Amino acid sequence: MNIFNYNEIPDEFFANIEFETIKSVNDIIDDVKKSGDGALIKYSRQFGDGLLDSLEVSKDEIKKAYKNVDKKTIDAIKTAIDNVKLFAQKQLECLKNLDTEYDGIKLGHRIIPLKRAGCYIPGGNYPLPSTAVMTIIPAKTAGVKEVIACSPRIKDVTIVACDMAGADKIYKVGGVQAIAAMAYGTETIQRVDKIVGPGNKYVTAAKKQIYGDCGIDFLAGPSEVLIIADESADARFTAADMLAQCEHDRDARAYLICFSHKFAKEVDKYAKEMLKQLKTSEIAKISYEKSFAVVADNLEQAVEISEKRAPEHLELCIENAQAKMDMFSNYGSLFLGNYSAEVYGDYCAGTNHTLPTNTVARYSGGLSVFDFLKVQTYQYADKNAAKKLSKTAAIIAENEGLLAHKNAADIRA
Question: Which of 103, 141, 248, 335 is the Cys-Cys partner for 252 at CB 3.0 to 4.6 Å?
Fold first, then answer.
């Protein structure tokens, strides 16, 4: 881990991952649009996902998957589902239909769920049943009529998680081809209204390319955590949480802001000791060596750095963290105090782990029940109300030079 003082922070600390347009991504998308299922089978074989005899996980395969997953794991998935569903339901309660009226004009909005959503569940480095829970549960809670899941090299535990979360269809397809299939449809996979879920740089580039033809949640890069730790923090916890992010991917990022070189070095010592015992150290070590610690002079400097970095996960391991949370506004999800481990958010606390990275938290929050809902307005004006509105509308339309607009108003006056 690289340790810097506040006035020595390198540009790399704030650098974003660039999602370039990759020609091969466009070629795959075009091929799926043209060739449908045939292209999905071809690319699954080409990219090491195996020769697929069918694209959909059958009912028999789902039953078999349950037999191959131990009860302890199934119980853990159920607990995670219950907690994520509870939080999603509470979020949903915050949204209400609106009806209001003035001078004979009725205005309002309706909360309407999407008809079909696609959940992408990565399966490259690790199976991620937790992502099945985090993407499918908010969609089903929102009232989406059909939720499909796509995952490459899908493992039994992921199949079970998808089924328990309520996926209507589960497909053994991943990568760019899965994004294209959900965006445009094939003989087997129906086109969806919105695609959500994390993925590698190719999946992210594909989401960028299909956006507009299909909705997406956001463009998420490698996982990242920023921990602000004062003298009340536990250096072992801090080291463990940094490595938990580093093992995701060689490009994952872990940042520490503390207030003494002694603490930074202590965290570094613990992290290196843990790496020796970590089975995923081959990936985690590479990412950890690119991680940063900044020694700030005070909390104000820490806030400044954090707000600019806008991390995916923000941990406040400081005194009176709850009282100081309003100092921060740019983060994907916030973890308050030494015992609010980020991994609880990853798996089972109830908040979502599909979160904005790459400073996207400056303008967007994480995946939630809200992502699967549309707030759609309506208006009703009777004859008398139309007369009142016509004069105002006609004046503005004339100023804009839109004379057909003016006529549409005048004709009702």
Answer: 248
The pLDDT tens digits for 43-79 are: 999 987 777 889 999 999 999 999 999 999 999 999 9
Query: Which member of 224, 247, 312, 342 is catalytic?
Result: 312
CB 254 within 8 A of CB 289: no
Same domain, 41 and 6: no
- Catalytic: which of 224, 248, 313, 342? 313
Residues 38 and 152 in one domain: yes
Residue 256 and residue 224: Cα distance in Å, rounded?
Answer: 11
- In whole angstroms, give the CA distance from residue 238 to residue 246: 12
Give yes or no: 312 in active site. Answer: yes
pTM, two decimal places? 0.93
Same domain, 204 and 265: no
Task: Give yes or no: 313 in active site.
Answer: yes
Sorted by sequence, the CB contacts under 8 Å of residue 360 that are 6+ apart come out as 218, 219, 220, 310, 332
| Residue 377: other Cβ atoms inside 10 A | 9
pLDDT band of residue 340 (cuts 50, 70, 90) is very high
Residues 34 and 152 both lie in one domain: yes
The enclosing domain of 28 has a CATH number of: 3.40.50.1980
Taking residues 18-42, what's their average pLDDT? 89
Share of the chain above pLDDT 70, in %: 99
Query: Is the separation of the CB atoms in 272 and 1 below 8 Å?
Result: no
Nearest to 393 by CA among 379, 377, 375, 413: 413
Together in a domain, 337 and 242 = yes
Domain that holds residue 297: 2-14+222-350
SS3 of residue 48 by DSSP: coil
